[in-house]
Amino acid sequence: MRRMMAVAAAAATIGAMVAPVIVGAGLPASALTAARIEHRGPTLEIHFGFSGPAPPLELSTHGIELWVELGRTRIAIPPRPLFGYETAPIASVRAIELAGGRSRIVVEVIGKADYAIARLRGRNEIVLRVASAGADPNIAAPMIVHDDAPRRPAAPVARAVAFAPAPKPRANSRAQPIASTPSNMSEEIRQPGHFLVMIDPGHGGYDPGTQSSAGAEEKDLALQIATRLKSALEARGIRAELTRSTDVFISLAERTRIANRAGADLFVSIHLNSSPNTDTTGIEVYYLNNTTDRATIRLARMENAGAGGYGAADASNLNYILTDLRQNYKASEAASVAKMIDAQTVADLDAGFGLKVNALGAKMGPFYVLVGAHMPAVLVECGFMSNAGEAARLASADYQEVLAGAVAGAVAHYFNADLAVGNL
Fold first, then answer.
1. pTM recorded for the entire structure
2. Three-class SS state of 46
């Protein structure tokens, strides 16, 4: 893969170490000067403040620990800056100064946990959010709002604590430097324009997909949203192409072949959902994997209908592809970008239209259109055509514009590596 950084694995196992994520680069030397923790419902949000711009960071998981390596940074806070305020799912937070001007933050968790980490531009801050596994399905959204949306007064929190600068730990301190592991952290990250996103408008031609009660067809709305997404990505300096730009039929297998031939760095398939329950609304983002969830299997069979009869969730050729994907970490990266897209679309649509969009989350599913991609691949179900109100919004140019901009923003976060989502 042509990217110079890897997104942290979305399902690290005990004792496993995944490829690092690099966040921010080419910044001047800085000092870690403050740390505070805020309780926001089921989630703990830790803010790390710096004397200058937030430094380059390298993220890796080590069993029950998340390591945040900081380039060109010295420690100016206590070795246990949040001692006495560390509550489940966080067991401890340590700040450690390493050799060569580097430092490390070590966050130990209790049990299985989800995390999201971001460098907030203009705030000299790195924010880490941690929640028990599954407790906060939209864990990245608040950080996206903090970073991208107009500034609003912070909501009251149950408890917050901050620490002022403190002397550097002595050599005999409890925070003895941990031996640094070899690092491939680069001081340069490829510019967004070097990346290529292949956008796949679902269905087309004689395959209309689902239909709204007003007669709008999925194939048409998917193409409209995909076209807007292409423009939104290009406006952010990211190259983008469409698998189809007109109302033509393309087989599911051919769609990823187009992406592979183009050497795409990310594959995004745009679809619209349907449910027997017409009250159902919301956004779902899928990445390739097997599942036993009945609703997902039903949706996959509906979307896979154009694959020459393929549709069984336990098909042997799909299992073969899944094994290969796991070996190459494509599924892990796809899971991370799916969570980013889910979080950003919900946050932006809520803010842009005053809605309470139903956040259905990032999920795994056996979608044939994602099989065979040589790059991370996700399928975005933008909303439910079976719900009259949501179908009308999905047909609106304004709604499509915000939706496409949100997906593009999440993709930009992914390529710039200034946001990462995963679990321990």
1. 0.66
2. strand
Residues 130-146 have pLDDT tens digits of: 999 888 877 776 666 55
Instruction: Answer for the pair 259, 211: CB distance below 8 angstroms, yes or no.
Output: no
Alpha helices in 211-355 (DSSP H): 218-235, 252-262, 294-303, 316-327, 330-353
Q: For 17, which DSSP code?
A: B
Beta carbons within 8 Å of 173's beta carbon, 6+ residues apart: 79
Cis ω before 89 (30° cut-off from 0) = yes
Q: How far, in Å, CA of 214 to CA of 279, rounded?
A: 16
Q: Is 423 helix (H, G, I), strand (E, B) or coil?
A: strand
| Among candidate residues 100, 6, 87, the one with its CA nearest the CA of residue 43 | 87
Of 364, 420, 16, 25, whose CA–CA distance to 188 is shortest?
A: 25
Q: Is 240 buried (19+), middle (13-18) or exposed (0-12) by CB count in 10 A?
A: buried
C-alpha–C-alpha distance, residues 389 and 401, integer Å: 17
Q: What digits encode the pLDDT tens for the residues 170-205? A: 333 322 222 222 222 232 334 445 789 999 999 999
Q: Which two tokens stand for residue 290?
A: 């097997």
CATH number at residue 321: 3.40.630.40
Q: 243 and 320: one domain?
A: yes
Based on the domain organization, do 141 and 256 belong to the same domain?
no
Residue 405's H or E segment, with its range, is: helix 397-416
Domain identity same for 290 and 150: no
As given in the structure block, the two tokens for residue 397 are 């140019």
Q: Which two tokens stand for residue 388?
A: 């009259």
Amino acid at 76: A
Length of the chain: 424
